């Protein structure tokens, strides 16, 4: 079997980890063992097909074992206090610390388990490299899950950070910071006077936490965010500098001492050292693995094609780190390199006779055009959009950062090790000026970010297909095939998906509430989720969800003024200023929402049942209670109304409250959902919006039992993520994101089964 065939076999064997709905439980490990035995037996045969099948099974078992090892801590370390030795790998100096459990109850952990600790300050200032004996209270990572939203559970597993928690006791075992931490502290102090010091740290050391959100957003909108990551660009540049130095030294030594391998080995060694210095973040680790593979292939003395090198590099990364298959950064990197190979093979650089500055500009424009067109599929999948201004931005940013800023930063980092403060300050000043020039240019560019909804997803493959069809003359030879392919790619844009049914989506916004009522491609919202310092759920979840589904809200009903229900309202108003607002608050620009009001929207009847118009009541018991009905099915939206308000609501209007579905009031609190309300609603479905690890342990077990005893189907966002209920004349259908829409092993409920939900 050739090396490239073996690499392809490995990639195909690890890739199913992206789609597997479940993993075998630990008691079922004989399944993995049997897979290994059968794989070895087949791999040793002389039949070619069996040979491939055997290696596929071996690599598949390797990926399954890696996934099981990541899941094991979440299932077994979250049941009670754990005594552990924790090595700190990063700390904000206050209450957030990232670390690795290297020993558990006196036994060494192999591999070490990643953990993020919140809410406690260490007895002394924490830094990377310290080791602490701790008593830990741990939780399995659990993220909010919505269609088209950020998948935090997948990200945490890809980063090998499956646990979060707190420590109840901490005693330092080794207080000395690591060499990298001491160097970083010194470098941070040196760069603090410079205007672009945080960006210099980000480019040089991979420390992006200090970079302001405004700068990050600017780089995202201009398509230059890739320059901030410590990845192939920076590490390969560092390796190239050492390679050039080694080649330069060879120029002055006798020919018999010259070895063509020495510069390659020196460049790789420095690249590995630099990746370690920057914290060996996953992109840096993958770059080092790829450089090691490239070095081995070069030293083999054989000639390898670009596609063979790409295959072997990706396979080596997945062999070393199988869960990297879950990483979006690996997807972006691997796809970008594949796009570059494809672009230069199918559309080479134009061979025009031009002066070298113009030729360099043309070549750079050719490169950026290829990246803009061919990276569309992965950009839409990951970011739900792309930047039109990236073509112009990268024409300036890439050469400026690659050939000026990064070399100056590397030189400054080297000079920082020596007692030459004058030379070092001069270098940092030049690097700072180069970044000032860069961001000054980026701020002059118009906002070129184009948001793309899921209807366009297949159409982003058009540049790839068009290039292939053009080079193979498919437009002339197979015009019907090309036209058919175009029609299939554009089918989601022109197909008519309008039905007589309507849907209600309870979004997973954590400890808050946001519901979307959708009919005929139009939507209104009931509540807008929570807000927090520096952001809100509308910016992070609701607006991206609406845009991904090509939906524009016509209005919002606000139940009451608490921040977990109204937190995203301003962001929604900024995005869609024309939408109307109804609430019981009497604020400027808000329509009224009081008992007795009735209106129509898209054939649905909305009736407000609470509060009274003359009431000055605020807070939970002032929640706007609305019933939505289509003549057959109905939905009761209750906000945070509590038992006292429920009693007043039922006193005269109980006969109007019967509903198919009820939004459980106050996130399932025991102060709400009194038995009379549960019985009078007489529904079939109860939906609860809450956060899994909320401090109030909502929803209440008593409330859940109350609904279940009355025959309701009990569904919660902590358990199922986004919940969608679709009503039609034939009945109703429920789709739960974790179980039905996106059933993946990394979306499961890990840890203690009874946690809030």
TrEMBL record:
Gene Ontology process terms (BP): establishment of competence for transformation
Organism listed in the record: Silvania hatchlandensis
Membrane-related topology note: Multi-pass membrane protein
Subcellular location: Cell membrane
Keywords: Cell membrane, Membrane, Transmembrane, Transmembrane helix
A Pfam match: Lactamase_B
Protein known as: ComEC family protein
Annotated GO CC locations: plasma membrane
SMART domains: Lactamase_B (SM00849)
Record-annotated membrane-spanning stretches: 53-73, 225-246, 258-277, 311-344, 364-384, 391-414, 456-472, 478-494
Domain Metallo-beta-lactamase, chain residue ranges per copy: 511-692
The keyword Metal-binding is assigned to this record: no
């Amino acid at each position: 079997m050739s090396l490239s065939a073996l690499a392809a076999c490995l990639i195909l064997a690890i890739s199913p980890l992206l789609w597997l709905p479940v993993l075998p439980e630990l008691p079922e490990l004989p399944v993995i063992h049997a897979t290994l035995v059968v794989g070895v037996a087949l791999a040793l045969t002389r039949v070619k097909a069996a040979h491939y099948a055997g290696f596929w099974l071996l690599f598949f078992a390797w990926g399954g074992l890696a996934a099981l090892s990541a899941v094991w801590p979440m299932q077994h370390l979250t049941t009670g206090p754990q005594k552990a030795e924790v090595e700190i790998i990063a700390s904000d100096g206050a209450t957030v610390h990232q670390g690795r459990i290297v020993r558990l109850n006196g036994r060494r952990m192999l591999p070490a388990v990643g953990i993020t600790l919140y809410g406690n300050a260490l007895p002394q200032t924490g830094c990377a490299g310290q080791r602490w004996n701790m008593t830990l209270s741990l939780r399995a990572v659990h993220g909010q899950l919505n269609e088209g939203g950020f998948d935090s559970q997948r990200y945490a597993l890809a980063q090998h950070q499956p646990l979060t928690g707190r420590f109840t006791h901490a005693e330092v075992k080794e207080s000395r910071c690591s060499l990298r931490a001491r160097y970083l502290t010194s470098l941070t102090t040196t760069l603090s006077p410079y205007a672009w010091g945080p960006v210099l740290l980000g480019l040089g050391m991979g420390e992006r936490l200090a970079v302001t959100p405004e700068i990050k957003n600017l780089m995202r909108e201009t398509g230059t965010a890739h320059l901030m990551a410590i990845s192939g660009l920076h590490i390969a540049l560092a390796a190239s500098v050492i390679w050039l130095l080694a080649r330069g030294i060879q120029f002055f030594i006798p020919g018999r001492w010259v070895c063509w391998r020495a510069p390659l080995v020196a460049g790789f060694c420095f690249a590995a050292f630099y990746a370690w210095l920057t914290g060996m973040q996953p992109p840096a680790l993958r770059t080092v693995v790829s450089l090691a593979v490239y070095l081995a292939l070069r030293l083999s003395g054989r000639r390898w094609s670009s596609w063979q090198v790409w295959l072997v590099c990706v396979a080596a990364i997945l062999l070393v780190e199988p869960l990297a298959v879950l990483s979006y950064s690996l997807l972006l990197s691997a796809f970008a390199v594949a796009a570059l190979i494809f672009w230069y093979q199918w559309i080479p650089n134009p061979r025009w006779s031009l002066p070298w500055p113009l030729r360099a500009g043309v070549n750079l424009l050719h490169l950026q055009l290829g990246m803009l067109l061919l990276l569309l599929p992965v950009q839409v999948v990951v970011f739900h959009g792309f930047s039109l201004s990236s073509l112009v931005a990268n024409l300036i940013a890439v050469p400026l950062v690659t050939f000026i800023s990064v070399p100056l930063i590397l030189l400054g980092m080297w000079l920082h090790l020596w007692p030459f403060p004058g030379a070092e300050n001069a270098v940092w000043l030049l690097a700072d000026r180069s970044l000032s020039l860069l961001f000054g240019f980026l701020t002059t560019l118009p906002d070129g970010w184009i948001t793309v909804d899921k209807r366009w997803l297949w159409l982003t493959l058009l540049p790839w297909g068009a290039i292939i069809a053009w080079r193979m003359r498919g437009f002339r030879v197979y015009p019907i095939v090309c036209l058919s392919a175009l029609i299939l790619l554009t089918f989601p844009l022109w197909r008519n998906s309008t039905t007589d049914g309507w849907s209600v989506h309870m979004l997973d916004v954590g400890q808050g509430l946001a519901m979307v009522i959708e009919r005929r491609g139009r939507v209104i919202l009931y509540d807008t989720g929570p807000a927090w310092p520096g952001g809100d759920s509308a910016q992070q979840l609701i607006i991206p969800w609406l845009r991904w589904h090509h939906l524009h809200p016509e209005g919002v009903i606000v139940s009451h003024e608490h921040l977990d229900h109204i937190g995203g309202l301003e962001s929604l108003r900024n995005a869609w200023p024309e939408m109307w607002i109804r609430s019981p608050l009497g604020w400027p620009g808000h329509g009224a929402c009081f008992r007795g009001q009735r209106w129509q929207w898209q054939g649905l009847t909305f009736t407000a049942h609470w509060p009274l118009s003359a009431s000055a009541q605020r807070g939970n018991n002032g929640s706007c209670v609305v019933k939505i009905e289509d003549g057959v099915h109905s939905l009761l939206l209750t906000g945070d109304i509590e038992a006292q308000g429920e009693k007043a609501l039922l006193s005269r209007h109980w006969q109007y409250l019967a509903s198919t579905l009820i939004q459980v009031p106050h996130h399932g609190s025991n102060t709400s959902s009194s038995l009379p309300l549960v019985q009078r609603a007489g529904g079939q479905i109860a939906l609860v919006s809450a956060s899994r690890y909320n401090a109030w342990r909502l929803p209440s077990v008593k409330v859940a039992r109350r609904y279940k005893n009355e025959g309701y189907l009990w569904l919660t966002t902590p358990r199922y993520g986004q919940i969608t209920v679709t009503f039609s004349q034939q009945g109703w259908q429920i789709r739960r994101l974790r179980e039905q829409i996106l059933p993946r092993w990394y979306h499961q409920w890990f840890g203690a089964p009874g946690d809030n939900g």
